[in-house]
Automatic annotation (TrEMBL):
<dbReference type="InterPro" id="IPR015421">
    <property type="entry name" value="PyrdxlP-dep_Trfase_major"/>
</dbReference>
<keyword id="KW-0663">Pyridoxal phosphate</keyword>
<dbReference type="InterPro" id="IPR015424">
    <property type="entry name" value="PyrdxlP-dep_Trfase"/>
</dbReference>
<dbReference type="GO" id="GO:0009102">
    <property type="term" value="P:biotin biosynthetic process"/>
</dbReference>
<protein>
    <submittedName>
        <fullName>Aspartate aminotransferase family protein</fullName>
    </submittedName>
</protein>
<dbReference type="InterPro" id="IPR005814">
    <property type="entry name" value="Aminotrans_3"/>
</dbReference>
<dbReference type="GO" id="GO:0004015">
    <property type="term" value="F:adenosylmethionine-8-amino-7-oxononanoate transaminase activity"/>
</dbReference>
<comment type="similarity">
    <text>Belongs to the class-III pyridoxal-phosphate-dependent aminotransferase family.</text>
</comment>
<dbReference type="Pfam" id="PF00202">
    <property type="entry name" value="Aminotran_3"/>
</dbReference>
<dbReference type="InterPro" id="IPR049704">
    <property type="entry name" value="Aminotrans_3_PPA_site"/>
</dbReference>
<dbReference type="GO" id="GO:0030170">
    <property type="term" value="F:pyridoxal phosphate binding"/>
</dbReference>
<dbReference type="InterPro" id="IPR015422">
    <property type="entry name" value="PyrdxlP-dep_Trfase_small"/>
</dbReference>
<keyword id="KW-0808">Transferase</keyword>
<keyword id="KW-0032">Aminotransferase</keyword>
Amino acid sequence: MTSPSLKNAPSLDAYWMPFTANRQFKAAPRLLASAEGMHYTASDGHRVLDGTAGLWCVNAGHGRRAIAQAVEQQLLTLDFAPSFQMGHPAAFAFAEALAAVAPGGPEAGLDRVFFTGSGSESVDTALKIALAYQRAIGQGTRTRLIGRERGYHGVGFGGISVGGLVNNRRVFTQLPGVDHLRHTHDLARNSFVKGQPEHGADLAEDLERLVALHGAETIAACIVEPVAGSTGVLVPPKGYLERLREICTRHGILLIFDEVITGFGRLGAPFATDYFGVVPDLVTTAKGLTNGTVPMGAVFASRGIHDALMHGPESAIELFHGYTYSGHPLACAAGLATLGIYAEEGLLTRGAGLAEDWASAVHDLRGHRHVIDIRTIGLVAGIELQPRPDAPGARAYEVFVDCFERGLLTRVTGDIIALSPPLIVEPEHIAEMTRILAEAIDRVA
Ligand code: PLP
């Protein structure tokens, strides 16, 4: 099987594609050849407006020269340095720069940074830090982890265990001692809401229920996405995150925000932590950290957590955890250049000025056939379609393919279409996105 549209087309057989219907894809491949600004160019030459910032990660838009130059320079200066018991300046510089823009600002004190290679690794790292911290402070019975239904925390065993998407879990063994809060999606009470829905803060009380069931002294941490992205954009009800924070604090449970999607400006604030004004103990990030250019993740830890682990003999390794590619020089160079662009162009808060127009443009899709809900916050939108009774997911998939062919990249989960454009998006791009999407929805059976 080869791609008909590529010169010297490679065979498509060897590459086992992730989270892809491989046989369906290879029968009718969609290949991207290049990217610049807000657009991809597909291998057949047609331009595709990027409605998803790649995979929620290209926040500053594509083809940024400053990042390319920084990576090239770093590659020619120091291509790799061992990450264990050795260091290099770019890793310290990037951690320091991140600490300066850390979630919640200086008062939050989330200014200790552990580097990983991806969002999944950030999640597993945060869960392990939480367990290590509890033990370090004499709370070693706290080994239980709490996630939430419909949560997506990547694909490591920690992440799928606290995650709540059944297809990512059913085939695989889970970590023991994990339980889940109920999800907050409530179409009956909260449909077609701009921003945070009114109903559902009480769902945070689920954590009290789990404390009553298991005992607080068994629970190390609770992890949630402040805005659940991959499951189809679920915005937290008003007051929900605040209550979760209170309950965690009351019971000595660490609160982890998975900001792999919401981090770096997606909501119109630097982090969801800033947007909602709720400060967790650990924050996981990746994606926008390097504008998606070089794989990397980072966990922000509170100083209290970090310092609690800096005990024992100075010659002892404090945390038996890390990756060959933690703080990789190229990723750090890319990340530093990315932060520079975010600062120069005000991208971490740019979404705030566009959010209202974004919401009204997307909510104009209300009334189109099959649309049963629309959710928006910052520069994110979820458009939920009525599933076909005999083929759940098929309708949204067909919309996705139609959009791509007509020049718009969207992302689909089940029958929910998600939009999350690069933060450099302009009003005319928003108009084009919603036009192509409306036409595709109208065409689908
Ligand atoms: N956590 C969240 C909230 C995510 O959205 C994702 C990816 O979409 C991940 C973790 C996993 O990130 P990665 O695919 O880089 O491992």
